[in-house]
Design a protein that fits this description.
The chain has 354 residues and is mostly helical. The protein has 16 helices and eight strands. The protein is 50% helix and 10% strand. A three-stranded antiparallel sheet has the order 1-2-3, with helices on one face. The protein has a three-stranded antiparallel sheet with strand order 4-5-8, with no helix packed on it. The protein has a two-stranded antiparallel sheet with strand order 6-7. The longest helix has 20 residues.
């Protein structure tokens, strides 16, 4: 067994009580670098990787760790390129730009609070801040997993608070109020696809008039606020859904009115739900100018998000079918467990929203 100091080369020790191998090296600045694993070879692999990357100091910045996390995700991540692009966008805008130069070991409670409060002061939305917090936790947990920081560093993670938005699901009575209020909005047909077909907001915005064919909709793409148009849906799947007779009438009536609209840019646009200039809708404007107005006029909870319309549709529809996978496929959810775990709500819970 190697001597602990070993002339600056570090030492390997096996502790039977913990059934783990440990490597320890005292660095020139007096700090200690440690790795552990179930086998000596596993620890040696970590040490070799650490040395090959020139990591003989404890001054790795958050930007350094973020870059390594990104490379690791490219090799092993479950999501596709679009998912990774989303993570990179969040890191660039809210993390590396704001706190990227801070050594990871210096990022503690005070730093976390200052960073979060700074994002709030700059006017970033609650949703954006929560995404940034989630991503930073991934980066810091990665640093912890690779022993770039000591085990005590795990205590710092609790200072990163994630406050999820309340998941609102309309009761039948609330749903009637929403539908009635939405009739006065120029995008009434759009909102009906969200609440009566369970489509994602980006999927509806991305629709072209050619996607509609005799009561069916081809859902092949999505429009993202960060990246614009994508030729795939969120999970990459393409699906065709059959609309109910009610929604079919609403869409066909809307398309007729669109084709004879006095605004030539709207009438000529191939986009199903264009703006006055014939372009794709800005999701922020749709939320503030249209959706919030509908909620206010209907007397519904103002904290409701547009995505909650999808929650509402799935939560009610899943109670109507014997096989919930039918709903899962209809709304483009690959994993039935996700549908059941995320979108099912007890009837009593829904009624409490009245």
């Amino acid at each position: 067994m190697t001597n602990k100091r070993n002339h600056g080369e570090g030492s390997y020790n096996y502790i039977p009580k913990r059934n783990r191998w440990f490597f320890k090296q005292v660095l020139e600045d007096g700090s200690v670098k440690q790795f552990s694993g179930k086998t000596k070879s596993a620890v040696q692999s970590k040490v070799n990787d650490w040395k090959n990357k020139g990591m003989l100091d404890n001054h790795k910045t958050i930007s350094n760790i973020a870059a390594e996390w990104t490379k690791e995700y490219q090799l092993t991540g479950d999501g596709g390129q679009r998912t990774l692009d989303g993570y990179i966008s969040v890191m660039d805008k809210y993390i590396t730009k704001e706190i990227g130069n801070i050594p990871v070991l210096d990022f503690g409670k005070a730093s976390a609070n200052k960073w979060r409060n700074n994002l709030i002061t700059k006017g970033h939305s609650n949703n954006s801040i929560n995404k940034a917090i989630d991503q930073l936790k991934k980066i810091l947990e990665y640093a912890l997993d690779l022993d770039y920081v000591g085990k005590n560093y795990a205590k710092q993670l609790k200072y990163l608070k994630h406050t999820p938005k309340p998941k609102v699901v309309f009761s039948p009575a609330q749903l009637d109020k929403f539908n009635e209020s939405a009739k006065d909005d120029i995008y009434y047909a759009l909102f009906m696809l969200l609440v009566k077909a369970g489509m994602r907001e980006g999927e509806v915005i991305a629709l072209n008039i050619d996607d509609y064919k005799s009561g069916t909709l081809d859902i092949t793409k999505t429009y993202d606020r960060e990246y614009g148009m994508s030729n795939t849906t969120k999970n990459g799947d393409v699906r065709t859904i059959e609309l109910t007779e009610e929604v079919k009438v609403i869409i066909e009536s809307y398309l007729i009115q669109k084709s004879i609209n006095s605004n030539k840019k709207i009438a000529a646009s191939k986009i199903m739900f264009p703006t006055h200039s014939g372009t794709y809708i800005n999701r922020g404007n749709l939320l503030r100018r249209n959706f919030k107005s509908i909620l206010k006029n209907a007397g519904l909870p103002m904290e409701t998000t547009i995505h909650n319309l999808r929650h509402t549709f799935i939560s009610h529809e899943i109670k109507k079918v014997e096989n919930p996978i039918v709903v899962s496929h209809y709304v483009g959810q690959r994993d039935l467990a996700t549908t059941l775990g995320t979108y099912t709500h007890k009837t009593d819970d829904i009624q409490k929203l009245d």
